[in-house]
Amino acid sequence: MCEQIYQNPPATIAIDGPAASGKSTIGNLLANKLGYISLDTGIMYRAVAYKAIQAKVDVYDGEAVSDLAERIQIDIRPSTAGDGCQFDVIIDGEDHTWDIRSPEVNQVVSEVSVYPRVRNAMTELQRKIAKNGRIVMIGRDIGTVVLPLAEMKIYLEASVEVRAQRRYIEELARGKKVCLDEIAESLRHRDEIDSGRAVAPLRPAEDAIVLNTDDMTVYEVVEYLMGLIARR
Ligand code: CDP
Ligand code: CDP
Questions:
Q1: Ligand 2 pocket at CB < 6 A
Q2: For a pocket test of ligand 2, which of 166, 215, 225 has the largest count of ligand atoms closer than 8 A to its C-beta?
């Protein structure tokens, strides 16, 4: 099979949007097609939240959470387990790939993500990783704050009902016992904090391509975006 050559692919692609809008699935597929690396920055905020829970740090104590965020070592590597997760997440030397996806982390991750020092520490790491380009970076504030000069910015939207349904199917497929209403409630909770915070709130950059994916499959979204890249 011939690999398609793109004339002028964007060196950095920012993908933002609310939880379960498809950012990581689509971002990872785009990165694979382009031969780029991808970075899901949500992993970093999840790592901070997990570490705070583990260390019994009060997530409402901004100073303590920020101290922890400034010290944390996060290593994200291609998965070795073949367990459906694209990346292994090593926090301070220990594998916590699945722990960071727990309902307990979901419940407090947006709370720890509001603190300016936490955001500064994560943003600095993210910019270092992006400095050589050829990257798809996925998050909430990539197009607006982390990489304001990204050559392509995508903002994925979908209704909370559709997003909850997607997460529900995903969790069921992993053999988890889940409740659709609880998932929807957890998404709403995070959306509200992520959109309402003072620093780096969730919103599309002015120059972002905003795509509502309620009625689009993953394949359709990827085809559409690859079409835009091919026509540049
Ligand atoms: O995968 P999902 O969309 O559920 O969430 P995530 O991308 O793993 O992000 C988890 C949380 O981290 C978000 O709800 C935000 O509170 C925070 N986050 C952020 O504040 N900024 C980012 N660039 C990425 C994530
Ligand atoms: O990274 P984010 O939290 O934005 O979403 P994701 O983890 O990539 O996607 C959540 C789930 O929705 C995954 O199981 C995707 O396969 C699914 N999805 C979908 O069914 N249709 C889309 N257009 C986008 C995502």
A1: 17, 19-25, 166, 170, 213, 216-218, 221
A2: 166
Domain boundaries, the chain: 10-219
The identity of residue 222, as a single letter, is V
Asked if residue 16 has its Cβ within 6 Å of ligand 1, the reply is: no
Q: In the chain, which ranges are continuous DSSP H helix?
A: 23-34, 42-54, 62-71, 103-112, 116-130, 160-173, 180-196, 218-230
Residue whose entry in the numeric block shows the structure tokens 């529900």: 168
CA distance 31 to 73: 24
Which CATH architecture is the domain 10-219 placed in?
3-Layer(aba) Sandwich (3.40)
Q: What is the pLDDT of residues 116-151, one digit of tens each?
A: 999 999 999 999 999 999 999 999 999 999 999 999
Furthest CA-CA distance within the chain: 55
* Ligand approaching nearest to the C-alpha of 167: 2
CA distance 37 to 177: 33
